[in-house]
Amino acid sequence: MSGAITYMLIEQPEKGKIIDVLLNYFTQLAAGITLTPTSKSTPTKTRSMDRLYMAKAMSPVFTKLMNMVLALRPENVEQYIIGCLNDMKLSGDYDIVEEVLNVEAVPTAPEVVEGEPVVTEETAATETVGSTEGDDVAMPAKMTILTLGLSLSGKTTMLKAIQGDPNPTPKPTVGFVPHALQLGSSVVTFYDLGGGDSIRDIWPNYYAETHGLIYVLDSSSDDMTFKDACSVFLESVSSPALAGKPCLLILNKKDLPSYRDTEEVLETLTLPPSCTICELTLHPQKTPSKSLDPEIDVNLSSLFNRIASDFSTISERVDNDVKEQLKKEEDEKKAKDKRVMKKSLNKAYSLNGFTPIDIFTPSDGYEFLAQEVGFMKAEELVEEGREVAELCGFQKIAMMLAAGMKEPVSKKKKRYEWSEIKEYIQECKAECERGEVDEEAFKDVEEGGVGGGGFDWGAV
Ligand SMILES: Nc1nc2c(ncn2[C@@H]2O[C@H](COP(=O)(O)OP(=O)(O)OP(=O)(O)O)[C@@H](O)[C@H]2O)c(=O)[nH]1
Ligand SMILES: [Mg+2]
Fold it and tell me: What's the whole-model pTM score?
């Protein structure tokens, strides 16, 4: 994936061609050919334009691909990505990428006439939805809304409909798709998360950064699905990172005879004080007028207003929660890397019942570590680097981890000095010698080898 990102960052295809260029890249990769960029620009000069392009144009596509790969863990990743890209091209998801570009391409905030929603070419399709006209509350420049609900409840239908699609025919959402809409002078990003059983595990990853929640419930479903939907709703809204944030519960599919109204639904669940409830037909073609139900606008506006009126508190909470989440993820990553390092050292030194695997000869080991940190030859490795290779027992994975500490793929990650890496490996080795190996590592031994992977050298 990192190769694809570098390729795209240099090529920077214009909007409308991103999916095609990526498809070509992965198709060639599946055939064993790694494409090199044809553009003359170099990735070492990270210009602000590159960062903007990465964040606005590529990030939604790559985030979606990564989420899909992580959720389904396909055996053949390249072929799976090709399938996803083809789906994105065929379905409306391709347009979403352009939408994000369009919204963000507005160079400066358009002039706002007080009380009037802003209409630009890009916003014309959506400006009537959630319009802030007549509201006293100032809208924040940006907010993030999470849309949750079981599979088939109508989340994507709603998001497509409010973007002007008169007859949405979405496929089940796999993973996560952001929809950025310009409403007045605000950019509202809706996170559309798939509601399938296996995808629901990723929902909590998005709770911290959300300012408000929309939960779509198919109020016409069979009893079992309805009960499941209610308990998933209650579980989500009461989770620490969402509890108390403004929430809208939409009872969808009012057009169907088996529809349960508000009164009936409230017999099954108690609505938390932060939630409002409404009855809607989200699909434009299922309303009597065969057009977008105006009640959608009314209810979304009300949700936006509730967020706006308490925005400083909510955004402070979002900032803190996001920081906390990042710290937690970082700690988990460090713990995981340490487990893997210890497992590799156990293999290198045949400790705690591990058998030696992937051990290089000293000369191959020096060369391997030198190349991992970007040198051509072993001779270029400084003395301390050679000592690190020795401390690793010339074990392949241990050396890859050490190289990842010296030259991390991500610029955001700390670059360690060789002396610090030596100290870290010595500490890990001492723990192994004392028999301090966690159960997970032993389990991996029984299963035969390095389990799970998950270090981020080479990965995004
Ligand atoms: N009758 C009726 N059907 C609707 C309505 N809204 C959505 N649907 C249908 O419900 C089905 C599922 O819609 P989606 O929008 O894909 O559901 P989703 O919640 O995004 O599902 P996942 O992506 O799998 O989580 C589609 O067949 C829609 O046409 C509605 O108001 N009335
Ligand atoms: Mg969907």
Answer: 0.64
Number of domains composing the chain: 3
Q: How far apart are CA 151 and CA 94, in angstroms?
A: 21
The per-residue pLDDT for 349 is 96
Say if residues 403 and 409 touch (Cβ distance below 8 Å).
no
Question: Buried (b) or exposed (e) across 351-386, using 16+ Cβ within 10 A?
Answer: bbebeeebbbeeeebbbbbbebbebeebeebeeebb
**Atom 8 of ligand 1 has which residue's CA nearest to it?**
154
ipTM of this complex: 0.99
| Residues of each annotated binding site for GTP | 149-156, 195, 252-255
How far the first Cα of the chain sits from its last, in Å, is 6
**Residue 145 shares a structural domain with residue 229:** yes
Across the chain, what does the average pLDDT equal? 82
Going by pLDDT thresholds of 50, 70 and 90, the confidence category of residue 453 is: very low
Ligand 1 pocket mutation, candidates 93, 157, 171, criterion most atoms within 8 A of CB? 157
From 174, 206, 214, 283, the mutation candidate for ligand 1 (largest count of ligand atoms within 8 A of CB) is: 283
Closest CA to 154 of 188, 195, 116: 195
Between 410 and 345, residue with greater pLDDT:
345
**Per-residue CA distances from 365 to 199, 200, 370, 398, 422 (Å):** 41, 43, 8, 11, 16
149, 175: one domain: yes
Q: What is the pLDDT of residue 77?
A: 79
CATH number at residue 163: 3.40.50.300
Counting from 1 in the atom list of ligand 1, the atom nearest the Cα of 193 is: 25
Single out the residue of 441, 457, 450 nearest to residue 395, CA to CA. 450
340 ligand 1 Cβ < 6 A: no
The answer to whether residue 99 is domain-embedded is no
Reported as half-sphere exposure (CB side, CA atoms, 13 A), residue 145 has a value of 29
